[in-house]
Design a protein that fits this description.
119 residues, mainly beta, 6-stranded mixed β-sheet, 4-stranded antiparallel β-sheet
């Protein structure tokens, strides 16, 4: 079973930046779409950034709430996907997780990484 380990979260002031990393224990990018999700207290988990598989062109998509501020990328050699987050807002505060997905997540969720944005 593939393991996913997120890191890079922290406390940042509004307007600041963070770069999150998600390391996979195996080579999963060829055939899997990858996504960064977030879950805030009392809210449903939402997909904020996605990247299609290598075999389908690595097309990126973003939720409207983060478009223009967040960028998803990956390093295939390191089996790692990243989320660069700029111009952070208090409403971006959440636990951030990554996973491969089709209509639903594929692998077991990792622990996630907490992002807290102060105003």
């Amino acid at each position: 079973q593939v393991q996913l380990v997120e890191s890079g979260g922290g406390l940042v002031q509004a307007g600041g930046s963070l770069r999150l990393s998600c390391a996979a224990s195996g080579s999963i990018f060829n055939d899997n779409d990858m996504g960064w999700f977030r879950q805030a207290p009392g809210k449903q988990r939402e997909l904020v950034a996605g990247m299609t598989s290598l075999t389908t062109g690595s097309i990126t998509t973003y939720a409207d709430s983060v478009k223009g501020r967040f960028t998803i990328s990956r390093d295939n050699a390191k089996n790692t996907v990243y989320l660069q987050m700029n111009s952070l807002k208090p409403e971006d505060t959440a636990v951030y997780l990554c996973n491969a997905f089709k209509t639903s997540p594929i692998f077991r969720w990792g622990q996630g990484t907490q992002v807290t944005v102060s105003s």
